[in-house]
Design goal:
The structure holds 3 protein chains of 3 kinds. By secondary structure, chain B is of the alpha+beta class. Chain B has helices spanning 94-107, 134-148, 175-180, 207-243, and strands spanning 10-11, 14-15, 27-31, 39-45, 48-59, 72-79, 119-129, 158-165, 168-171, 183-190, 195-199, 202-203. In chain B, a hairpin with a 4-residue loop joins strand 10 (183-190) and strand 11 (195-199). Chain B starts with 9 loop residues before the first strand and ends with a helix. Chain C is an alpha+beta fold. Chain C has a single domain, classed as 2-Layer Sandwich (Ribosomal Protein S5, domain 2). In chain C, strand 5 and strand 6 form a beta hairpin. Classes of the chains: A alpha+beta, B alpha+beta, C alpha+beta. Chains in contact: A-B, A-C, B-C.
Chain lengths: 226, 244, 253
């Protein structure tokens, strides 16, 4: 049986369900019952009970798109800060798209400390070492744009269900966004005023991520500014 | 200025501040009070004013202290120089180091440390104003801060002190009772199942008094637990209320 | 531990500065929201909590009896200590005060000592033997830039909050303070001078200059920090900013 409704605010230790239910994200099982592990909103999809955390650090998962910042250069590539307890590793050959002779070439010409990179998490091993890839088009060193950092837990709201929020942010302002699941978002646009509008909208989403009707609110706000 | 021991600590069933033996001091808890920290909480219990902050999970430095399969929990309990009557020299002393250790051991059981191998979770407890029961109030605030940081937990951890004063078992000792009473027993518990994660005692209890003290402590813990949950909900609830 | 900033963000902030703009929309000579709350800690003789935007600094003042210094036998003692608490920032580590904490304490100390706002001579109990020592403990709780101005403001507020100790040796009607020194820190970002830097601005500033002034516009203390430099004309500009913004800050005391 269920002890909570959908979209209910719960805290760690709250009994959510007993019996024939699956423990989803943000929950744990004890004595055959499902409890909340975090402060968040319940999400009940048929027999799956999850709690969507309202806070928390980013934990890298394969396939995630992230924006990292170079903190260190090592012989074969770079170490990137991912706004996570775990740093990412990017091989020079991966970035260059070819074999790199690290003794002949100065790889800091490709990337140096402080540079921001749009990348994908290629692999996470059992020791939590994270390999990044920039193989796909559009990935790689970020040369221009405005970078915003928000709590990673709120990023799904910036994307929206099936990308609906992202579509509104881009269509109403004419800006392009690259959303890193690790809480970093890149905004590119010709008009600085429009870029500012997007930044303001994102910060608003972060503040009100736990409220409903946000998509309409943001849409109205950005369209009103046209 | 030094004041001598009051002649009696309980008169007509009332303690020096008017409380009955089973009453808690006024309590206030607020979550998310600091901007930089990943999670934070502030607690007032009687004249205690305590701030707790959490950073993490994050990369553990130095590397050689990393644990390959679990996160490390680090706790630092610290008293401000102005938190007590006689100014305290800044920096850790033996008392605060012991307290830091027992606090860490009180919080560890609720955390899923295996979820974050090689990482570290830092808990800082700063006593801004002290009035007895700082370590248990610190634990109470620290567990709210951990939840505020989004760190997964099995339950909160709730602390309170119980003791004996003028032969009577009492809940939540104040400074004078701690100083002049016959027994002081800090307790911390995972409230859902009343699992005890911190227990210390100094003074003298008969086995019966010990049981009474534990009963009182558990009652106090139930009340404080509600306040902790409320503090976490309150951070989001006012806006959720507006929604309706 | 250093803060991490991406070059993309750094370039953005530097570009804004050249346009006379700031990341949070403030003017170059504008402070964030300032709040000063007195009497927050009962165990201290005087205390204050100052908020400068998201920066929070708490100061406790305690009076204790002590021995005077041999060369000033009739003078009370002033001791200023600052703690950059690890809970205030991921870059602050537990341990004894590092050079930043020590510099902060000494800058605050000079602002208070050189302004002579405390009449230390009135704090003598018995010449050569016993005097009152004033301990100012600065507790940084939340770091979002400009700790110096917040710490000086909180320290002065706490001193004005002092209720004298209940003691036979206290013979004065009240705590002997007068004058109100105020510190204003100006940072130079891409050649542009601005006050009350938030953390992001502070992290990319070339240099900073703190000027403490009194009500009459006189300067009682100065400190340059950071590895950049200031031109002569920039010093004039900094003083103007310090005097103007100092007046505004002083109203909060």
């Amino acid at each position: 049986m269920l002890f909570v409704g959908n979209r209910e605010l719960v805290v760690p230790g709250k009994l959510l369900a007993e019996g024939d239910y699956f423990a989803g994200e943000g929950t744990f099982i004890e004595d055959g019952k499902v409890f909340s592990a975090v402060v968040g909103l319940t999400e009940i999809r048929e027999k799956n009970v999850s709690v969507i955390s309202l806070q928390g650090r980013y934990i890298p998962r394969r396939g995630d798109r992230v924006i990292g910042i170079v903190t260190d250069t090592h012989p074969y590539g770079w170490t990137l800060d991912l706004n996570s307890p775990y740093t990412g590793n990017l091989m020079a050959s991966e970035l260059a798209g070819r074999k790199v002779d690290v003794f002949r070439e100065d790889i800091s010409k490709l990337l140096k400390t402080g540079d921001a990179v749009l990348a994908e998490v290629k692999e996470v091993d059992e020791r939590w070492r994270v390999q990044l890839s920039v193989g796909e088009r559009g990935l790689g060193k970020i040369r221009e744009g405005r970078l915003v950092e928000i709590s990673p837990a709120k990023v799904p709201r910036v994307i929206g269900r099936k990308g609906s929020m992202l579509k509104i942010l881009q269509d109403t302002t004419g800006c392009r966004l690259e959303v890193g699941l690790n809480g970093r978002i890149l905004i590119r646009g010709k008009d600085p005023a429009k870029v500012n509008e997007v930044v303001e909208a994102i910060l608003l989403i972060e503040r009100e991520a736990h409220l409903s009707g946000l998509t309409d609110k943001i849409k109205a706000r950005l369209e009103g500014k046209k | 200025m030094e004041t001598g021991k009051p002649e009696r600590l309980i008169v007509n069933g009332r303690r020096l501040d008017g409380r009955r033996p089973d009453e808690l001091r006024p309590l206030r808890i607020k979550a998310g009070v600091l901007k930089r920290a990943d999670g934070s909480a502030y607690i007032e219990l009687g004249k205690n004013k305590i701030l707790a902050a959490v950073y993490g999970p994050k990369e553990m430095h130095p590397r050689h202290l990393q644990q390959s399969d679990v996160a490390v929990l680090r706790c630092r309990y610290n008293m401000a120089p102005f938190s007590v009557e006689e100014r305290k020299r800044p920096g850790p002393d033996r008392r605060s180091m012991e307290i830091s250790k027992v606090i860490r051991e009180a919080l560890e059981p609720v955390l899923f440390l295996h979820l974050y191998p090689r990482a570290v979770i830092d808990v800082f407890i700063e006593i801004l104003q002290a009035d007895a029961g700082t370590r248990t109030a610190g634990i109470t605030a620290a567990s709210v801060a951990l939840a505020d940081a989004g760190i997964p937990m099995r339950d909160l951890v709730t602390g309170v002190s119980a003791g004996k004063v003028d032969g009577t078992v009492v809940l939540d000792l104040m400074k004078e009772e701690d100083q002049w009473g016959e027994a002081d027993m800090p307790v911390a518990v995972m409230p859902r199942k009343k699992r005890i994660t911190l227990l210390q005692m100094d003074g003298n209890f008969t086995p019966e008094e010990f049981r009474q003290a534990l009963d009182l402590a558990f009652k106090g813990i139930d009340l404080i637990y509600e306040a902790q949950k409320e503090a976490l909900r309150e951070k989001y609830l006012p806006s959720l209320e507006e929604e309706k | 531990m250093k803060e991490l900033i991406s070059s993309v963000k750094k370039d953005y902030l530097l570009g804004l500065a050249l346009q006379g703009k700031r990341v949070d929309g403030r003017a170059l000579d504008q402070y964030r929201e300032v709040s000063v709350e007195r009497g927050v800690i009962g165990t201290a003789q005087g205390s204050a909590l100052v908020k400068l935007g998201n920066t929070q600094v708490m100061v406790g003042v305690k009076l204790q009896k002590g021995e005077p210094f041999p060369d000033t036998p009739t003078s009370g003692i002033l001791v200023v200590n600052a703690e950059l608490l690890p809970l205030a920032s991921p870059t602050f580590e537990p341990g004894p005060p590092n050079e930043d904490a020590i510099e902060l304490a000494r800058v605050v100390d000079r602002a208070i000592r050189e302004s002579q706002m405390i009449d230390l001579e009135k704090l003598c109990i018995k010449e050569g033997e016993e005097v009152w020592a004033v301990f100012i403990d600065i507790y940084v709780l939340d770091h979002d830039g400009n700790l110096i101005d917040a710490s000086v403001l909180a320290s002065v507020a706490a001193l004005y909050d002092v209720k004298p100790p209940v003691s036979e040796e206290w013979t004065l009607p009240e705590f002997p303070v007068s004058k109100k020194p105020v510190a204003v820190t100006v940072v130079k970002l891409n050649g542009v001078m601005m006050v009350d830097a938030c953390l992001e601005e502070e992290n990319i500033a070339e240099a900073r200059l703190t000027i403490s002034t009194l009500e009459d516009g006189s300067i009682c203390a100065m400190q340059k920090g950071g590895s950049g430099f200031f031109e002569r004309e920039e010093l004039e500009k900094a003083y103007e900013l310090a005097r103007k913004c100092g007046e505004e800050l002083r109203k909060k005391l």
